[in-house]
Amino acid sequence: MSEQSETFIAKSTIKAADIEHRRKINFNIGKYNAVVPKGKEQFADINLAKERAKNIKWRAIETLDQQLETFELNFTKRGGKVIWAENSHQAIEEILNICKAKNCKTLVKSKSMATEEIHLNHSLEEHGIESVETDLGEYIQQLDGEAPYHIVTPAMHKSKEDVAKLFNQKLGTPLNYTPEQLTQVARKILRKKYTEAEVGVTGANFIISDIGGVAVTENEGNARLSCAFPKTHIVIVGIEKMIPSMTDLALFWPLLSTYGTGQKVTVYNTILSGPRQPNETDGPEEMYVILLDNGRTTILNNPVQRQSLYCIRCGACLNVCPVYKNIGGHAYGTTYSGPIGSVITPNLQGMNDFKHLSYASSLCGACTEVCPIKINLHELLLENRRESVEEGLAPFSEKIAWKLWKIASLKRGLMNMGNGEIKNKIVNGLFKGWAKNRSPLYFSQKTFNEMWKEQNKH
């Protein structure tokens, strides 16, 4: 068992028994569930919309090499610079080089899972650069020294009382401040940071091949401020975020907002296609797009797992997953949690260390049902399990157990032996790994085969 697996079991055991944690997360997910059906009403045929979105992403991923080259060509025409990063180390190195060239002391950053994936804040801190999260949820998490809890809602596990207490401890605000007052405090602090920062960093919800553009979706305006005030703007985006045409946004933006937050469309939707042009009055003087691989081409090389790259990071699968709703986002110990995280993390960071996530599922199929891009998530979890066995990662005891089971199941006489107590003792006593985190199994005193023979003996 890997260290990551042991940590996951320990954390999930604690969180599964934490009733208060469950109350908070179910309260917040309940609010989400109440508004999503309203957002879906904008689609005349939601299943058709999902099917079309899947086909567009299929085309983008199947021709990804061509799409990326076209994006680079069109983006650089307007003075932008494209950097290809094979892994997180290369991405960090390039960002630090840019910051050094700009004599950067303060950097503002909007919400981005890609920057969380490469642990950007930690690296900047080590080099004496202040990195400030400007998304309110991310800012709350940064103050608390925690990673994001959810792909879309970073502080979903915190109540308004938790946030008020945190602000009181870190910023000295009164404990009785309302959410509106706390937001104003954060806004006042962050507005100053925008004007001080030499560099702004954002992620991207989509990168658009035919115009060489970057599409950013948000509700607070912090991404716009992060790329408008600083003289240098850096976009860090996974290569799978590609869509072929700007016209595709007419479908993807409403789908993302509906399944992400229940809105018809988010408040701010921006397309960025390069640095400030001679005839423009605002925008950065320089703009870089770092195209991050970091294991994505490994997934691309797998014909079955490839469809996981269609994901638009709406977070819908997390909100319906019974496992996520019980153990929360931090128990996973990874950047991407929930069903999509359990699918892609073993392929991004190594099956040996993270194959256990593929077993953290009831395989109920709710994630597949809710996915706006129709990714067969529960089937991909099964595929991960199959691949881990083929790679020889199953423990010796498990291999022996299944070998004995195969021998017994092919011989009716052996299957009928030791009914009741003997089978109970073997499974619940001998196979302690099974019984440790599951209810005990109790076998019938007679198999169906034996009962059938008794019923029809004449």
Average the pLDDT over all residues and give the rounded result: 93
Give helix % range.
40-55%
Strand content: 5-15%
**Total DSSP helices:** 24
Based on Cα principal axes, name the global outline. Answer: globular
Give the domain tally. Answer: 3
Question: In CATH's first tier, which class of the largest domain applies?
Answer: Alpha Beta
In angstroms, what is the radius of gyration? 25 Å
Q: Architecture of the largest domain in CATH?
A: 3-Layer(aba) Sandwich
Main sheet record: 6 strands, parallel
**Strand arrangement across the biggest beta sheet:** 1-10-7-4-2-3
Structure commentary:
It is built from 24 helices and ten strands. The protein is of the alpha/beta class and 458 residues long. The protein folds into three domains: 1-41 and 311-394, no CATH class; 46-294, Rossmann fold; 397-455, no CATH class. The strands form two sheets. It has a six-stranded parallel sheet, sandwiched between helices. It has a four-stranded mixed sheet with strand order 8-5-6-9, with helices on both faces. It is globular, with a radius of gyration of 25 Å.
